[in-house]
Amino acid sequence: MTTDVLSAVRDLLPTIAEAAAKVDETGRVSDQMIHELGKAGVFRLLQPKRYGGTESDPARFFDAVRMISGACGSTGWVTSVLGVHPWHLALFDDRAQSDVWERDNDTLVSSAYAPVGRLHPVEGGYRLSGEWHFSSGCDHAAWALLGAIVVGEEGRPLDFLTVLVPRSDYRIRDVWDVMGMRGTASNEISIVDCFVPEYRTKSNYETAHLRGAGQKVNRGPLYRLPFATIFTTAVASPGVGIVAGCYERYLANMRERVRLSLGGGKFVHDQFAQVAIARASSEIDAAILQLERNVRELWELALEGEELPMSMRLRARRDQVRATERAVEAMDLLFKSAGGHSLFRGNVIERAWRDVHAGSVHVANEAERALALFGQGAFGLPVEDNLV
C-alpha cells in the first residue's frame, strides 16, 4: 500500500512542478492539488487504520514529503503539516477522532501550536479565546489543533494543552504575504469565546511522556513514537526536499551554461563550482541519512514494544535541526555558485532559496534550543522539555 502511495506521488511530481510558480504567485496550493494528493493517499499514511488510514512506517511519509517538496516547496510544506496531523489526532480521546473522521475519513486538520490561546475551565470543558498565527494550509482543513494555556485565578497558568476546534468555531484571516513559502497560505486563526469539550483537549506534558487516551484505542507502534520526533521531522523534511530537488535542477541547468565573464568557458569546468556541488550534495546526503536513521531506529524499537531511550529522542532532535541547517548551507552554496542568473524572480533556484530560508525560521528549527537539550542529556543533566 505504501509503495502504491509513493508511486502515485511520483506520477504527480511533473504537475506539482509545473504549478509551482503559480502557487508562489497566488499564495496557496490549489484545492485540486490537495484533492489529488488525497487520492494518492499521502494524508492517510499516518492515519489510524480504524479510520481508513494505513498506519505506515513514518519514514515513507517523509519520503513522500521530500519528493513533493523537491517539485514545489510550498506544496511539500502543506503536505507535510496536513499529513502529520492525523498522527497527532490519533493520540486524542477516541471521541475527538470520531468527531473528525466518522463521517469523512478524508477530513483534514491544520494547526497552530503556539500556546497563545487562553482556556478558562467550565463544566464539561473550557471556554477558549485567542489569535494564532501561521496555520499552514488552514483553508483546506475543517478542524484545527491549537495551542492554549489553562488560566486559573488571577490569570495564573495551570497547564499547557493542545485543543481540537471545528471550522465553525473559528475565523481565518488572510494575512499571509511573505518572502518565502508563499504558497503555504499560513494564515491567522481567530476565536472569541468558544466552548471546547474536555475530550477534545490533550495535555502536552502527557504527550511528551508518550501516554494518553489515544494509545488505548490506537495500539500500533506508530502511536508509540515521540511527538517531538514525528512533528519536528515533518518540519525539517520539506527544506531538505527543496534543496535536494533544486540540486538536481541545478545540475541539469548548469551543464550547458557558458560563462560570459571570468575568461568564459563552460561552467562545468569551473573548479569552484565543482567544489560547491560536492559540498552541497554532501550536506543533503548527511541530512537525509541522519533523519532516516533516527526515525528508522525509533520505529524498530516501537515495533518490538521496547522503551524509547531519551538519548535517541535527543539525538533525533539534534539531527532534525542540523538537517535544516545543512539544507540552508547547501542551498546557499548552490545559490551563490549559480551567479547572477539565480537572482531573477521565478527562477527555480531563487524560489528554492526563499523557501528554504523561510522554512528554517519555524520554531521547531531553532538550533540552539535543540542542541542545548542534547548537550544537557550528554552531560547527564535532567532534560525537561515537551519538544523531545
Radius of gyration: 21 Å
Please trace the helix and strand order, writing H or E for each element.
HHHHHEEEEEEEHHHHHHH
Strand order of the largest sheet: 5-6-2-1-3-4-7
Unreliable spans are: none
Mean of pLDDT:
95
CATH class of the largest domain: Mainly Alpha
Question: What helical percentage do the residues reach?
Answer: 40-55%
The assigned CATH architecture of the largest domain is: Up-down Bundle
The number of helical segments is 12
Structural class: alpha+beta
Please provide the count of β strands.
Answer: 7
CATH superfamily of the largest domain, by name, is Butyryl-CoA Dehydrogenase, subunit A, domain 3
**N-to-C terminal Cα separation, in Å?**
30 Å
Question: Can you tag this structure with a few keywords?
Answer:
Butyryl-CoA Dehydrogenase, subunit A, domain 2, single chain, 388 residues, 7-stranded mixed beta sheet, Butyryl-Coa Dehydrogenase, subunit A, domain 1, alpha+beta, 7 strands, Butyryl-CoA Dehydrogenase, subunit A, domain 3
